[in-house]
């Protein structure tokens, strides 16, 4: 079942739209402001996001910008604004489509299906990273460990993609922090995410075979367990 994250602060509009989407067979989660919506996505992910532009807490433009730092999940912006500038800004931030209120249910469903089709329309092997027990479908934001789908937050997914994409190479802590977090982020955040990844990737997280710590430098992903002895 396709998971939809609807970030919309107008309760009546969100209720009606959520009802319609569930009736069409979608699994819908509603977030009433930008901060809650961003947190919801970071913790649970989604297959597509319907994002209102005018939100309390954190504007839709900022939510879109933050999500795009870690994920290519399809985003459709919903807004009452209809100027060319607003549309261009939304698309430049990484939104896949832009629809202006009011719109018909049929139009929205058609736009959603088109965006989902485009996001999954690449050849199967394109955008897929494989190494050791890990397979990452970057376009669909799906992670498989030993053939089983495993839930990763957007940051976990992005971190694992960096490691797997540079298999065998040592990636410094500084490099990883700059790629994934703001400059003022606590470096312990990286350690926490590595620990979480090991719990999902390793057979024995206490004795990792794939995600190795290179003392004084950073981390390295390897596919040959024998490399752990030299890591």
The overall strand count is 12
Low-pLDDT parts are: 121-125, 226-231
Category by helix and strand content: alpha/beta
What CATH calls the topology of the largest domain is Rossmann fold
Which descriptor suits the 3D outline? elongated
Strand content: 15-25%
Name some characteristics of this structure:
single chain; 231 residues; alpha/beta; Rossmann fold; Arc Repressor Mutant, subunit A; 2 domains; five-stranded parallel β-sheet; four-stranded antiparallel β-sheet; 8 helices; 39% helix; 22% strand; disordered C terminus
What does this structure look like?
The structure is a single chain. The chain has 231 residues and is α/β, with parallel strands linked by helices. It has two domains: 3-119, Rossmann fold (3-Layer(aba) Sandwich); 128-229, Winged helix-like DNA-binding domain superfamily/Winged helix DNA-binding domain (Arc Repressor Mutant, subunit A, Orthogonal Bundle). The chain is built from eight helices and twelve strands. It has helices spanning 11-23, 34-44, 60-68, 84-92, 105-119, 154-165, 173-180, 188-201; strands spanning 3-7, 27-31, 48-52, 75-79, 97-100, 128-131, 134-137, 142-145, 148-150, 170-172, 211-214, 218-221. Strands 2-1-3-4-5 form a five-stranded parallel sheet, sandwiched between helices. It has a four-stranded antiparallel sheet with strand order 6-7-8-9, covered by helices on one side. A three-stranded antiparallel sheet has the order 10-12-11.
